[in-house]
TrEMBL record:
Belongs to the short-chain dehydrogenases/reductases (SDR) family. This is SDR family NAD(P)-dependent oxidoreductase. Keywords: Oxidoreductase. It comes from Cellulomonas dongxiuzhuiae. Transmembrane segments: none annotated. Pfam families: adh_short.
Length: 265
């Protein structure tokens, strides 16, 4: 897979992708907004794994920044062989009463940027007849829980369509659909996880190891853990009216959280 470019590498799953890829002797390109964190990580990866780590600070909701990352993906100098479209966020708001600008940023980050970077990477990789694209979706893409579910459903269908188009080119596309994973995601999004079942939680290390194993095998749909494989199979078979009850559950939790005073109020 050669050099790997990971978006959202400053925290959570992206940080874990960077470590596991570096440990497997891949040079890495680290992308996120927090340049300080990325620079520290690059130093740690170089010292611990003896690889080369590039830092590419970018706000992936800003189209000029996205274009700089796309340029890096198109470049034939130190070519990128694996793109991991991982950066993402959770919104702690209802759609109707929520802030549309925040919705726009979420859509830009988790849909438009994934499309633009996949386009840049796929074009260069097909030309070189090798490469892999890994898009981070979510098990939420199978249910109806806010616009986040819609974004992650888009990521899944988009990646499957990309895999169909890439067949026979030497380039693969994989979408990983994790369940709840311990990262900074919920705290950053001010999402209350007190009611989440303990059995639902996954470790970033296991999610990333499963996703990278599936990329190496050319698997298109990757669902880490037996628990979530079983849950996803049930969700695919269940009538959509039953699946929508999960969205109702999230709605009730959000109602409760939004009624509670903000922690810093
Ligand atoms: P996290 O710990 O909050 O990390 C999010 C990463 O995305 C950070 O590195 C952050 O870096 C980056 N990011 C956020 N906004 C950005 C922007 N505008 N431009 C560039 N980078 C940005 O969350 P995580 O759990 O690792 O999430 C990674 C992916 O997994 C997301 O796509 C998420 O939807 C998905 N996922 C997470 C879970 C879960 O339960 N944690 C479950 C299923 C799927 P900076 O702040 O430095 O920019």
């Amino acid at each position: 897979m050669g050099i790997a470019l990971v978006t959202g590498a400053s925290a959570g799953l992206g940080l874990e992708f960077a470590w596991q890829l570096a440990t497997a002797r891949h040079d890495v390109v680290l992308v996120a907004r927090d340049e300080g964190r990325l620079t520290r990580l690059a130093g740690q990866l170089e010292a611990a794994a003896g690889i080369h780590a590039e830092v590419l600070a970018a706000d992936l909701t800003d189209r000029a920044d996205v274009e700089r990352v796309a340029e890096r993906l198109r470049s034939d100098e130190r070519p990128v062989g694996l793109l991991v479209n991982n950066a993402g966020l959770g919104l702690n708001q209802h759609f109707v009463s929520g802030d549309l600008a925040a919705e726009d940023r979420a859509l830009e980050l988790m849909v438009r940027t994934v499309m633009a970077l996949s386009h840049a990477a796929a074009g260069a990789m097909v030309r070189r007849e090798r490469g892999a694209i890994l898009n981070v979706g979510s098990v939420a893409g199978l249910i109806a829980s806010g616009t986040y579910s819609a974004h992650k459903a888009w990521v899944r269908v988009f990646t499957e369509a990309l895999a169909v188009e890439l067949k026979g080119t030497g380039v693969t596309a994989t979408v990983v659909a994790p369940g709840f994973t311990r990262t900074e995601f919920h705290e950053r999004g001010r999402i209350d996880t007190a009611h989440y079942p303990a059995i639902g939680w996954l470790d970033a290390e296991d999610v990333v190891a499963a996703a990278l194993a599936d990329v190496r095998r050319g698997v298109v749909l990757s669902t880490p853990s037996l628990r979530y494989k079983a849950a996803s199979a049930l969700l695919r078979l269940a009538p959509r009216s039953a699946v929508r009850t999960f969205g109702g559950y999230r709605r009730a939790l959000l109602d409760e959280a939004l009624e509670a005073p903000a922690p810093d109020a």
